Every structure is written in C-alpha cells, then in structure tokens.
Amino acid sequence: MSEDEKGRAKAEQAEGKLKEAAGRLVGNERLTAEGRAEGAKGDARQAKEKIKDVFKR
Fold first, then answer.
1. In the chain, what are the domain boundaries?
2. How confident is the model at residue 1 (pLDDT cuts 50, 70, 90)?
C-alpha cells in the first residue's frame, strides 16, 4: 500500500468517525450520515490498496 494512499484512507476513516460522533452528539442525522459515508469511502480506499498490493507480489 503506498504511504500516501494509506494515509489518505486513515484520514478519511478518522474524519468520518469524528463527523458521525458529532452528528450523534448534536442530533444532526445528515452529519451522522455524511460521517458514515466518509468512513466507508476510507474503508474502500484501504481495501483497494490492499488488493493492489496482493497483485504486486
């Protein structure tokens, strides 16, 4: 996994969790959903990079 993509995936996951928690705290369903979506995007990016690493070997 390239370090740039790995860092970006982790950042998206962390930001998504933060948004989701903030949305729950203030009762904002839209913010909660945005956080979940952003976290899922980070998960997908990480999975993509892991698959790329498998085929490099």
1. 3-56
2. low
CA dihedral 7, 36, 52, 50 (to 10 degrees): 70
Name the token pair of 29. 């369903």
Q: How far apart are CA 48 and CA 42, in angstroms?
A: 10
Structural contact between residues 16 and 42, judged by C-beta atoms closer than 8 angstroms = yes
Predicted structure pTM score: 0.81
3-state percent helix, strand, coil for the chain, nearest multiple of 5? 90, 0, 10
Spacing of C-alpha 15 from chain mean position: 7
